[in-house]
Amino acid sequence: MSNATFPLLCAKDLSVRYRVSGGRGVLMAVNDVTFDLLRATTLGLVGESGCGKTTLARAVLRLVPVSDGQVVFDGLDLSHLSGSHLRRLRRRMQIVFQDPLGSLSPRMTIGDAVGEGLRIHRLRRGSAIRDRVAEMLERVGLQAADMVRYPYELSGGQRQRVAIARALAVGPELLVCDEPVSALDVSAQAQILSLLVGLRRDFGLTYLFISHNLAIVDSVCDAVAVMYLGRFVEIGPRAAVFENPGHPYTRVLLESVPDPEPRPRRASLRTIGEPASPSSPPPGCPFHPRCPFAVDVCRHDRPELRATSSAPAHRVACHRADEDLSGATPSNASGITA
Amino acid sequence: MSPNRHSAALAVRDLRVEIRTREGIVRPVDGVSFDIRPGRTLGLAGESGCGKTVSALALMRLLPRGQARISGGSVLWSNGDGESVNLATAAEQEVRRLRGRRLAMIFQDPAAALNPVFTVGEQIAEVSRLHLGLSHGKAMRRAVSLLSRVGIADAARRAREYPHQFSGGMQQRAMLAMALAGEPGILIADEPTTALDVTVQAQIVDLLRGLQSEAGMGMLWVTHDLGVLAQVADEICVMYAGRIVERAGTRELFANPLHPYTQALLACVPRLHRPAGTGGIPGSVPTPAEVPPGCRFHPRCALSRRLAVELDAELCVNTQSGSVLRRCVDEVPALRPVGADHWVACGEVAS
Amino acid sequence: MLQARAPRLWRRFRRRRLGMLSLAGLVLLAAVAVLRPVLASRLPIVCRYEGRLYFPGLVGVLRSVPFASAVVEESRPFSLPSFDVEKAVADSSFAVRALIPYDPLDYSSEVRARPSRQHWLGTDDLGRDVAARLVHGTAVSLKVGLGAMALAGLVGIVLGAWAGYAGGIVDVVVSRLIELVMCFPVFFLILAVMVWVEEPGVTHVVFVIGLTAWTPIARLMRAEMLRLRGSEFAVAARALGAGPVRVLVRHLLPNAMAPVAVTITFGVGHAILIEAGLSWLGFGVPPPAPSWGVMLRSAYDQIQSAPFLVYPPCVAIFVTVLMVNWLGEAVRDAADPRGESENLVPG
């Protein structure tokens, strides 16, 4: 009981700052982010490139230093843990990267890569390493004989399977998936997604799942957080966010998903341009320059995350969250395209 | 502007490409035919390794020299005015005259396609100077107007910036401006939105659609994502292991996909409100060196396997990948019409 | 699986014909260096003298082996300087002489003799047999070339990798050190050091060259580390719980070694030539000990009167450097699991 409701991972007011090289100025990659991730659930993290989602993923694993706030893993504050303690803890939290070719060392065989965690943490010895590697490779849909091959000999989907096997070999509880299918073909995407869903069920894993495509997040997550310029602009249970998106940005993301149903071309919600640089975010609501519904107050005051009227767990950072905007005329002329 | 650019077309017939590798000669494109018509968009879909990019490069005669060559078929370019050139056999000089001017191409990775040491404006102007013979000043002014046409705000300032100062989406727009600088009648787009965020992807799709209807270009859109093609293509060719397995109008294809491969590929497209777990297509595309006999899809084909269970044992044959229909292994299915505007290369579906 | 790596490397290496050829050549050269007392010596390899069997040539070989000194005693009369070897050989009932029956230091009146049956490569200005000197010089040149670059490689790889991986103050200090050593006129630095050494020997030359030739290696290593440090597979290794040493040694170094290995092999030829320059000025290998460098320098002076003297050391240096380079390239290619790139167009 306590295990089920006790969050495995909490982030509290988490911020990651970078100094901009060669000058003054600070880049707020992650800004004041708070969330709880319950055991055996999946939180989807959505946003465009540059919104800070990869930095957040690395910060909760302490792969980049945390500037402010806390990361608590299973009751343990990671933010100021020393190197050797942290390394021991890494066995319990693993990551799968976007580009499997880049995240696998080109000079290491598949077997060496998957077995490395076992050696680092001395989880197995001698031939038991081999057995475990073979077991993991077979579990992710490869063959034990692939052990002697090199990453370049595999297809993109197979490489990503290797990366997943490497992460799972040490028996983690938390798996951070940083855009695990974005670099793959749609057919390989579907394979990897169903593999991840199966592994979550079989091993009782907890996922932090990052993607820029809401359709992918929709298929695997229990809760969804939408990130824009380093901040959460919406977070809530999946159904609430997808059925009843409170933030205009979420709506834009939803409408941008390529829909494989050819139909008469209809007007759809679009943003203009791309996000501002995180080193000089606009005043007020960070999304206002691209928002089709921005009004005066959006340009001056930054909205805080507030519970919506429909569900308390569903929180939105928008001044107009409680208005019904579905029929509203976008104030921004280029907001609607034909 | 030439008066007849609205009627340029490209007719590809039985195109074959050979690549020399250490293991011998392989054919990543093995008899492919399609038409790019003025003002229309043809989608070429398939997984990586199916030969779609090689086909696109072959049309532009951009295959790496010495390794790959067009070994058969024809690529007939014509401009509605009676002038036509077979790009498969034309002299290099002739092809160069057309490339960039009559036919342009944009790529998946704009960062790699733009030269980092020249400003974006200079690179776009270069194309106009080369193909339209404009002076430096005129070409630069034209570059600015092209940039604003592809939706870059503050184009005059942006033209003086370098590629690294552009975001991914803006680089793709800049490359598009460069492709449009020669006022081509035909645009070949190789995965132009794959590397982009969904929001930017949607913007680029809208932009290309708008530009096309405005300029009447014929377009070939190569991608692995049928979801994108649903929004841009008028007609779609699905390619597998170097051959076209199904060809139909976009609406027809999505409403009535017939080839088992098309069906499987369609099931892979991520959609909202549908749980994952279709599992994708088992296995992967065979490399050109090891294409299976008969129908090239048979080792992965769900239909063939299902029918093998239902039908008599004498119609079946056991292979490495399980029991499949004998005819799928023995016969090479030809692309046959199954309806108006719909062709399929599958023995079972067609009969 | 770690055990399996070395055979796999060897298997890929074996496929490279030039690499195998170079390896065989270098092994042969090393053998020449070790066996020089048997190959070129006034002393016979084996002889029976006054009823006893002596092995003066073999003793010469064994002398370089630490624990073989007991056998050395056995050939005592032959190793005495006053002993007349020619007479002894003439008197002995049985003698097997070396292939080149001359010592590298034996003077004779036959000065600058052209190559002949007696002197295969001729004699130099002091009447010494060039072939004998060439054989004996192999040891010195190999020691200097390989030893100095092994040392330089070690220093360069360690410092460069440390600077590139650690960054910060370490990087600043190492980078300045590299610049300092690079800007310094190395040759004169070496000269200055050699003056300080009371009895300069081959070991000193090795150290002095090794400790000055590491800068290009370190610079390259540092750049490779900067490139690889941020790579995703390094982050992946950290995420797996690997400590900094493991990340550096198991993940970054194997990927950085290829260009560095080639730089090191190029250094070998350079070191051999520096030794030549030093020896010529009298600060290298103490004369009259032969080295290819010494031979080349003295041949320069007589290029008008005896041009044939230039070729033997030139060819020896050229062939050695070429083989070391080929070997380096073959090792680099073998270390890359991709082998020759396939160059397939993506489709």
Inertia-based shape of chain C: elongated
Order of helices and strands of chain A: HEEEHEEHEHHHHEHEHEEHHEHEEE
Strand fraction of chain C equals: under 5%
Q: Which regions of chain C have little confidence, pLDDT < 50, spanning 5+ residues?
A: 340-347
How can the largest sheet of chain A be summarized? 8 strands, mixed
**How many DSSP H or I helices of chain A?**
12
Number of strands of chain A: 14
Structural class of chain C: mainly alpha
CATH topology of the largest domain in chain C: MetI-like fold
Q: Largest beta sheet of chain A: what is the strand line-up?
A: 6-7-8-3-9-10-13-12
Count of all domains of chain C: 2
Rounded average pLDDT of chain C: 83
CATH superfamily of the largest domain in chain A: P-loop containing nucleotide triphosphate hydrolases
Low-pLDDT stretches of chain A: 332-338
What portion of residues of chain C is helical?
Answer: 55-70%
CATH topology of the largest domain in chain A: Rossmann fold
Question: Which percent range describes the beta-strand content of chain A?
Answer: 15-25%
**Helix amount of chain A:** 25-40%
CATH class of the largest domain in chain C: Mainly Alpha
C-alpha-based Rg of chain A, rounded:
21 Å
Specify the CATH homologous superfamily of the largest domain in chain C. MetI-like
How would you explain this protein's 3D organization?
The complex is a heterotrimer of chains A (338), B (351) and C (347). Chain A is α/β, with parallel strands linked by helices. Chain A folds into two domains: 2-221, Rossmann fold (3-Layer(aba) Sandwich); 245-337, no CATH class. Chain A is 31% helix and 22% strand. Chain A contains twelve helices and 14 strands. In chain A, helix 5 (110-120) crosses helix 6 (127-139), helix 6 crosses helix 7 (156-169) and helix 7 runs parallel beside helix 8. Residues 332-338 of chain A have low confidence and may be disordered. Chain B is an alpha/beta fold and 351 residues long. Chain B has two domains: 1-102 and 184-293, Rossmann fold (3-Layer(aba) Sandwich), CATH 3.40.50.300; 115-181, no CATH class. Chain B is built from 14 helices and 14 strands. In chain B, strand 4 (68-78) and strand 5 form a beta hairpin. In chain B, helix 4 (120-132) crosses helix 5, helix 4 (120-132) packs parallel to helix 7 (168-180) and helix 5 crosses helix 7 (168-180). The radius of gyration of chain B is 22 Å and the shape is globular. Chain C has 347 residues and is mainly alpha-helical. Chain C has two domains: 2-16 and 132-335, MetI-like fold (Orthogonal Bundle); 43-97, no CATH class. Chain C is built from 16 helices and three strands. In chain C, strand 1 and strand 2 (52-54) form a beta hairpin. The longest helix of chain C is centred in the C-terminal third of the chain and has 38 residues, at 244-281. Chain C is elongated and about 80 Å long. The two termini of chain C are 34 Å apart. Residues 340-347 of chain C have low confidence and may be disordered.
